[in-house]
Amino acid sequence: MNDNLNLSNLPTIPVAPEGFKSGFVGIIGRPNVGKSTLMNQLIGQKIAITSPVSQTTRNRLRGILTTEKAQIIFVDTPGIHKPHHSLGKIIVKNAKTAINAVDIILLVVDSSTKSGGGDRYIIDLLKTVNQPIILGLNKSDQQPENYQEIDESYASLIQDYNWPILKFSALTGDGLENLQNSLIEQLDFGPYYYPPDLITDQPERFIMGELIREQILQMTRQEIPHSVAIAIEKVEETPKVTKIFAAINVERNSQKGIMIGQKGSMLKAIGTAAREQIQKLIAGEVYLKLFVKVEPQWRQSNLRLAEFGYRVEE
Ligand SMILES: Nc1nc2c(ncn2[C@@H]2O[C@H](COP(=O)(O)OP(=O)(O)OP(=O)(O)O)[C@@H](O)[C@H]2O)c(=O)[nH]1
């Protein structure tokens, strides 16, 4: 019998106690403001990848925080920006869909610099939204001396609305308890949507691919912009070690060269760092084998995008 159909294998979800609150919080913002860092910090484990290169996050990813009083499901959305190619369009479309499917919107901005056109673009998108919105000033640890001017530049953008403003640092954790309490306060009473010990809705394989992609983005920086997709081809579990075979798909031969590096040095460095991250994720020994493949123009082709796991959500 297929194990998936065996009902006794399904996780059980307890009945929530009286007064329990729950709901979905959409983390929205421009690329690179710290949305993924924030979600990881709030749920206490790395499930969303982060990097100094913008547009790191591609798919919707849920992070689940369960406390005694509440369950908050965070929906990390790809940064909203004006799209230039078909992957970009899917990313923005998914972010807009996410806005409609949540109970509270946490609009995150980078308060180490003043507001700009990109912030105004998102606030315009949110004008017609009915859910409560919180404006989160992130990167408080990096604010310069003229922080009051910066705070004012954001406050003036939302002066016509009654949105609360909270300041925090996703990196240091400063102000996050306050943020968590404000979110719980605004949530309605509700059930456990997920088992209390679950921290994400994504399968482990997806996160593994993301952890590999994170190392590529960090190590190759601007040289391999966004033309990389990871396919986890095989996972073999043995009692001692989990063997993972993953293909790194790039668009051009030149990118393949960069990815492999001199005498394979780049691929080796990526593999070593990603292996360490994956070991933390699965709490066990990992053997990671990486291959590089050239898939011309994968970003333009919706079919190929679907194969690599990028969903367009209606
Ligand atoms: N100093 C400081 N840096 C931060 C903070 N939060 C995030 N960062 C950094 O900002 C960069 C972008 O963070 P991400 O979490 O990847 O940003 P994101 O909004 O998810 O980015 P996209 O996936 O592009 O939408 C990373 O280098 C983070 O380390 C913060 O509170 N303080």
TrEMBL record:
GO cellular component terms, semicolon-separated: cytosol; plasma membrane
Region annotated G1, chain positions: 29-36
Membrane protein topology class: Peripheral membrane protein
Listed Pfam families: KH_2, MMR_HSR1
Localization, UniProt: Cytoplasm; Cell membrane
Domain KH type-2 as annotated: residue spans: 220-296
Residue segments, region G4: 138-141
Taxonomic classification: Bacteria, Bacillati, Cyanobacteriota, Cyanophyceae, Oscillatoriophycideae
Domain Era-type G: 21-189
General function of this protein: An essential GTPase that binds both GDP and GTP, with rapid nucleotide exchange. Plays a role in 16S rRNA processing and 30S ribosomal subunit biogenesis and possibly also in cell cycle regulation and energy metabolism.
Region listing for G2, in residue ranges: 55-59
Positions of region (G5): 168-170
Protein name: GTPase Era
Record gene name: era
Alphabetical GO biological process terms: ribosomal small subunit assembly
Keywords (A to Z) from UniProt: Cell membrane, Cytoplasm, GTP-binding, Membrane, Nucleotide-binding, Ribosome biogenesis, RNA-binding, rRNA-binding
Region (G3): 76-79
Protein residues bound to GTP: 29-36, 76-80, 138-141
MF term (GO), any: GTPase activity
The protein's assembly and partners: Monomer.
InterPro entries (alphabetical): G_ERA_dom, GTP-bd, GTPase_Era-like, KH_dom-like_a/b, KH_dom_type_2, KH_sf_prok-type, P-loop_NTPase, Small_GTP-bd
Organism encoding this protein: Crocosphaera watsonii WH 8501
Family to which the UniProt record says this protein belongs: Belongs to the TRAFAC class TrmE-Era-EngA-EngB-Septin-like GTPase superfamily. Era GTPase family.
